[in-house]
Design goal:
This protein is an alpha+beta fold and 410 residues long. It folds into 2 domains: 70 residues, SH3 Domains (SH3 type barrels), CATH 2.30.30.40; 306 residues, no CATH class. The protein has 15 helices and 13 strands. The strands form 4 sheets. Strands 1, 2, 5, 6 and 7 form a 5-stranded antiparallel sheet that branches. It has a 3-stranded antiparallel sheet with strand order 3-4-10. Helix 5 packs across helix 11 and helix 13 packs antiparallel against helix 14. The two termini are 32 Å apart.
């Protein structure tokens, strides 16, 4: 009991809050409305664009709000700045509900993915992963406290603030969640590692990194593919897969953090959808997303066909060779995210150097984009960027080698 009380005091002492009382308007569709201030808290439902809410409390980028008679937490990124909400008791606009229930949202996503799986040989059991949490909020907060024991997480985070990104829209439209789950189910069909302790640890570290990105409010999920090839895949809906072969060559938690930061960047920067946007079907898909009905009992066949094609394209974008410009950007932002999380950013180069040392000059892995020459080029760019930007208080960085080896080097 004493340990639990100490944990509560330490956590809430580090995360100040205030009472607000302002009226705001939700500025993006399908905003996650959660039970607590974090993407790992259970989902209450989704608020649609235009919903008027009253802010009750603010905490580390999250706001506790009241909508009608319900209280929950939303990201400050989802609320219009300086906007005043309408009637807080109003539940509809033009007959459509402004709060989509968790069951309706989940049913729409899983329903489409199931149709995709039936035709494209995905893993039907993977659909359960859309809702099932890998850890409880308490487990994450305890893991986070353990990670930052003796270190100030806010000071670590603030030592690098200048994150310049081309993509400033960090929302995931509901249609993208649908096609993302479908594409992820096809990747999962390659076979997943079922070791719950390893998967939980991977997700705990992953969420430490996500908390230090611009998409801290979106629920990423991390999986291990039972595949000895060295590879990783990032699906545009925030589902990320690392192969067991890749985890075998990683030696510590800082290396894992940098690799996860790299893959998370592909989602944050929407690299997969940038590629899809070059195809004509994506233009039509934007209309398909816009036509999504909140309750979604049925969907127009034309829209279904469009989304089905996008899901296939999303699978291809996640598993085929990526453009080097995306790799460079993912390297740079990935090590920034790891650095802001308190990990050694040069750890990524240790992974790349290990790959380079074990490959021939004519090596190229078509799925993961590992190539001898590209690895050399990336190492040089990473070294230069770290030397210029990520050298403040290096004693704050950790590798957590023993914790990593407790899970993956037994």
């Amino acid at each position: 009991m004493k340990k639990l009380m100490l944990f509560s005091v330490v956590f809430f002492g580090l995360t100040g809050f205030s009472i607000s009382g302002e009226q705001k308007v939700v500025s993006r569709d399908n905003t996650h409305f959660r039970e607590g201030p974090g993407s790992y808290y259970p989902l209450i439902g989704m608020l649609k664009k235009g919903a008027g809410v009253e802010t009750v409390e603010t905490q580390a980028g999250w706001l506790k709000v009241k909508y009608a008679d319900k209280f929950g937490w939303v990201s400050e990124n989802a609320l219009a700045t300086g906007a005043t909400g309408g009637s807080l008791s109003s539940m509809t606009t033009g007959g459509a509900p402004l709060l989509i229930s968790k069951a309706s949202a989940s049913g729409a996503v899983k329903g489409f993915a199931q149709k995709f799986i039936d035709f494209h040989k995905g893993d039907p059991t993977f659909l359960d992963q859309y809702e099932v949490p890998f850890f409880s909020p308490y487990e994450y907060l305890r893991f986070r406290q353990e990670t930052y024991t003796g270190r100030d997480s806010e000071k670590i985070r603030k030592r690098y603030k200048r994150i310049k990104t081309e993509n400033i829209d960090h929302s995931i439209p509901f249609g993208q969640e649908k096609v993302g789950l479908a594409a992820a189910s096809k990747i999962a069909a390659l076979g997943l590692v079922k070791d719950q302790a390893k998967v939980k640890y991977l997700n705990l570290v992953g969420n430490i990194i996500v908390d230090n990105t611009d998409m801290f409010d979106y629920p990423f999920k991390f999986f291990i593919l039972d595949d000895k090839r060295i590879s990783a895949y990032a699906v545009p809906n925030g589902m990320i897969f690392l192969t067991s072969g890749l985890l075998d060559i990683i030696q510590d938690e800082a290396e894992l953090a940098c690799v996860l930061g790299h893959e998370i960047t592909h989602v944050v920067q929407k690299h997969g959808f940038q590629e899809l946007a070059k195809r004509s079907t994506m233009i039509e898909a934007e209309d398909a997303f816009a036509e999504f009905d909140a309750e979604m009992q049925t969907e127009d066949d034309t829209i279904e066909a469009e989304l089905d094609q996008i899901a296939l394209n999303s699978y291809e974008a996640a598993t085929k060779k990526r453009q080097m410009k995306y790799e460079y950007e993912a390297d740079e932002l990935g090590i920034i995210y790891a650095y802001r999380s308190g990990y050694d950013p040069s750890a990524l180069n240790r992974v790349l150097a290990r790959l380079k040392a074990n490959t021939s000059r004519d090596f190229w892995h078509p799925e993961s984009n590992w190539a001898y020459d590209s690895i050399l080029d990336r190492v040089e760019k990473i070294d230069a960027f770290i030397a210029k930007n990520l050298t403040k208080n290096p004693d704050w960085n950790v590798t957590n080698q023993m914790r990593y080896r407790g899970y993956f080097k037994k």
